[in-house]
Amino acid sequence: MFLYKLYRYKRSLFALAVAGCLIQLVIFYKQGAVATPFFNYGMYSEKILSKDQYEIYKVYVNGELLKGDDYSIQEWDKIYVPVYMYYAKDTTNELMIEVRNRLLLKLQLKGLEADNRYFENREFNDEAFIEWYAAYLCGFSGHSSQNIRVIKQNYQWNGQQLLPADSIVLFQYRQ
Amino acid sequence: MEWATTATGRFHSAVSIPAIAYRQQTKVIYMYLFVSLLLCADRWWNGMLLSQLQPAFFVTPMNVTAWALMFTGIHELFMNNQPACLFADLLLVAFPVMYTLLHIKQYAKAKIMLGGCMLVFNFVYAQCYTLYPSNSIEGHIGWMLFPVVLMCHRLTDFSFALQVIRFVFLFFLATAGVWKIRNGGIFNPGQMSGVLLLQHSQLLATAPSSFLAEIYYWLISHPAVGYLLYLAATLLELFFIVGFFTRKADRWLLLLLFIFLITDILVMRIKYWEIMHLAIPLFFSRSDLFAIADKTSK
Predict the structure, then answer these.
(1) Residue B125 burial (C-beta neighbours within 10 Å; 0-12, 13-18, 19+)
(2) B153 with B102: CB under 8 angstroms?
(3) Which of A14, B122, B184, B276 has its CA 20 to 30 A from that of B228?
(4) How close A50 comes to chain B (CA, Å)?
């Protein structure tokens, strides 16, 4: 057995390996929070059922809808991931600060709870994001940035296909 | 004439086993260099280097280590700071090249120090990189952990470290299969339909009549076929458990890994090539380099 060989070779390395295994067990037990480099590689392991409704982000450049099959996997991610991450960032960051503070409290690390300097990026507002996104998008997609419109649209799943429903305009950018 | 029997049963005249193992160590380092440069080229081609992502904001993940790092504020260093991003990208490419040169020149102490630097740098790079709109941290595990091997100059240490990386690789894939049982995904006949809808909703909504969308819609509307795919993926992942008991199947595991990576791209549109560093030990698991650790501990 590898651990036994390690034990025979160097006790310090063996202790390190055992510590690693124990941390991984805690991560297994806790589920949810991880601690790099200890992860739970779930890879869609939870029961996932078809939902009635899906939230879709649609990007129009100069009136033309950007379509998933026109771009490589990573280009497509680069188009819409920043949009949903931007609109989720404040809620997610606030939630993470809450969870982090609960952990700090458990660890008796007082004084750090209020230190949120590097955990919020509120200065990066809608205006800054739109300017950044327009330049970023046009930088890799080859489009000119005259007119960009981003909408969030609900799609209903009818058991056969996704059908468009209500939508809201998230932002419109005109150069 | 002096003869030595190597762990693989071959005979080498007047060449000691460490000398053979040293040559294999060099091959490991060349492969590390090759994989690193290939992954960097892939990132550059797809506009995924830090400098090409041009990070301007971050989202905090549910990751305790990330929180510890964020207290230092280092992730803000790369935001709206193109020179810092370019410098980090340059180091990402330069470190494996520098390490290989140091190995060829046999600068042991410098190698160990550079290996340590790479461990810290790759960790910080990956952790910051995944705070910005990019991809998830799990795929960067190879970048983060392989420098542990590079910090080992002595052949025995190197051999043990390589085996640790091999176990991390097996753990990565085998537990993905175990989680599918533990969390119940495997017991849900409509699992793959739900997964495909979740994963490809953007593509299905924006390009519903595309070739890809037609394939995905077909799989979604044939849940039995989709489920068989999910089951096959789970069994494939579970097969990696074999690797914990024997190294004889490593060539098969490599083949399965490539099937997994290609299928992941075709069906899920997820690129998991970044874990390739973890697979390096499997190319050498039948070599004398691995046998060194086995013999040392006897």
Answers:
(1) buried
(2) no
(3) B276
(4) 4
pLDDT digits (tens, 9 = 90+) for A91-105: 999 999 999 999 898
Total residue count of chain A as it appears in this document: 175
Please write the tens of the pLDDT for every residue from A20-46. 999 999 998 887 789 999 999 988 999
**For residue A138, what pLDDT is reported?**
86
A57: nearest CB among B72, B202, B270: B202
Nearest-Cα distance to chain B for A85, in Å, is 7
Domain residue ranges in chain A: 1-48, 53-174
Nearest to B183 among A46, A54, A74 (CB): A46
The crossing angle, in degrees rounded to 10, of helices B288-296 and A2-9 is 70
Query: Tens digit of pLDDT for each residue in A131-146?
Result: 999 999 988 877 776 7
Q: Can you read off the two tokens belonging to residue B55?
A: 């990070």
CA proximity to B110, closest of B101, B121, B123? B101
Would you call A48 and B195 a contact, using CB atoms and an 8 Å cutoff?
A: yes
Res B297: pLDDT: 58
Task: Identify the bridge partners of residue A169 per DSSP, sorted by sequence position.
Answer: A151
Cβ-contact B55, B125 below 8 angstroms: no
CB of A125 within 8 Å of a chain B CB? The answer is: no
* Residues from chain A contacting residue B213 (CB–CB below 8 Å): 68-69
For every residue of A118-175, DSSP letters joined together read TT--TTS-HHHHHHHHHHHHHHHH----SEEEEEEEEEEE-SS-EEEEEEEEEEEEE-
Q: Which residue of B has its CA nearest to A11?
A: B297
Averaged pLDDT score across all residues of chain A: 90
Written in H, E and C, the secondary structure of B128-141 is: HHCCCCCCCHHHHH
- CB–CB contact B127 A36 (8 Å): yes
Per the CB < 8 Å rule, is B133 touching A81? yes
Q: What is the pLDDT of residues B134-172, one digit of tens each?
A: 989 999 999 999 999 999 988 889 999 999 999 999 999
